[in-house]
Structures are given as C-alpha cells and as structure tokens.
Amino acid sequence: MADPRNDHILARDLAVEAGKVLLAIRADFPQDGDPKALRDAGDRGSHDFLMDALAQARPDDAVLSEEGADNPVRLRSERVWIVDPLDGTREFSERPRDDWAVHVALWERGELVAGAVALPARDQVFSTDAVPAIPEATGGPIRLAVSRSRPPAWLPGLVEALDAELVPMGSAGVKAVSVLDGSTDAYVHAGGQYEWDSAAPVVVAAAAGLFTSRVDGSKLLYNQPNVSLPDLIVCRPELAEQVLAAVATLEF
User: Fold this and answer.
1) Is 251 annotated as a binding residue?
2) Which CATH architecture has domain 4-127?
3) CATH topology of domain 143-247
C-alpha cells in the first residue's frame, strides 16, 4: 500500500497541476470564443491530465471522475480516487471569474483519507497535506455560502431560521472551503450533487475540524453504486447543532 503521507502530497500536487492545465487552456482560448467550447476544453483537458497522472502514480488504484465512464471495478477496489477535474464550469468560462476549483480525493476501505481542493485562479490549495487552522469566529451573524446563480427555493427559510447573511459564490468546492478560509461560517446544499462534488472538500474540511454531514445529520458515504450524493452541510463545529436544527424545519 502506498505511504499515506505520500497520498496527501499526491492529492495536493495533482490538484495544483490540473489547475495549471486549466489556466493554460483558459489563457489560450480566444476571448470571443464559445463559452461552451471553453467549458468542454477545460473538462477534457483536466480530466485527461488527472487520469494520466494517476495511472502513472497509482496504477493499481481505481478512479471515479465526473468526466469519465464509471468503471464498476471501483466497487471491488480498496482504494479509489474521486475527482472533479473542473468544479464550476460556468464560472471557469466567465473570465476573469476565479470561483472555480479542482477536486482530488482518495477513498480507502470505506473512508475518505486524503484530498485537496485547488482554486487555480486564486493560486490557492487546501489539502490534507497541510491542514489549515479554522479561523476565529467573527461573533457576527452566521454567514452562509450560497449559489450566485441558482439559489434554492428553501433558502429564505434557512436564512430566517438562522438569522443569517448570504455570501454568493460559484462552485461547490469554493463554497465549502470558504468556511475553511473564514469567508463564511456554513455551507448547506440540497438539490442534487454527486460524490465528486463533495469528496475532496469534505475530507479537507473534516481534517481541519469542521463539521460535515448530510442534511439529516447522517454520515456522507462515498464509492457507492449510485454516485448521487444530493445534499451536504459543512460548517464550523460550534454551529453544527444550530444548523442541523434549522435545516430540520425546511422542506426540500
């Protein structure tokens, strides 16, 4: 088995290098080019890089990627890399927006064990290789990370229940790590995601000491036959009880 420390380093390095691939694709793409073509080029370029790099670095491990065909061999594997080559494709195509990410996570024998979330356009990476400290609480209203373009219908109820302030942004990864960098206090999502949307943010957030769960408080499970994982909570640990109580009053 690969040394666990090296898995942390590999996850970080892969996320950073895939981010460089994406920045180059973005820089070389014509300014008047079709945004969909840019999104497709980003998805494909980052996916191809990650698949090639993992095949070289961890040839015996399985991979679950948003942009690849789901190989059922992963369900018989002890180690599975769960990757989102480009989280926030819309934001990636809306230059010069920087709220998009690369997710790389490792699942091993039932648990997420390593991962990284890179924010290439911000030159940032959050990883289990060097777990960041949770910033001090602000003492003000709870700040909720929310979708800039697709706020859910249940959001006003959560805002009222928590007396919260909204902080709009793109990309699930960016929203999750906003709790880590102190930009927000909580991220609540319900309405459709997949394992690759949350695996890397969750393993990094949990390693830092943040609370992570499904919206009903149950554990987030990965490398499942059905890769749909539609809801998520990431929040400061001292807010977990309050956030779960507020979420329990909502109808999704």
Assistant:
1) no
2) 2-Layer Sandwich (3.30)
3) D-Maltodextrin-Binding Protein; domain 2 (3.40.190)
pLDDT in tens, 177-187: 999 999 999 99
Tell me whether residue 91 is annotated as binding: no
Domain ranges of the chain: 4-127, 143-247
Residue 40 annotated in ligand binding: no
Written as six digits, the tokens of 46 are: 């980052």
Residue 81 CA to residue 27 CA, distance in Å, equals 28
Q: Provide the strand spans (E) within the chain.
A: 62-65, 79-87, 101-108, 111-119, 124-127, 143-147, 165-169, 186-190, 211-213, 231-235
Q: Confirm or deny that 3 is annotated as ligand binding.
A: no
- For the CA atoms of 121, 126, 132, 136, the dihedral, rounded to the nearest 10 degrees, stands at 50
Q: Between the CA of residue 181 and those of 135, 143, 147, 159, 201, what are the distances in Å?
A: 7, 13, 18, 21, 12
Model-wide pTM > 0.70: yes
> Is 244 annotated as belonging to a binding site?
no
Quick: pLDDT tens for 193-241. 999 999 999 999 999 999 999 999 999 999 999 999 999 999 999 999 9
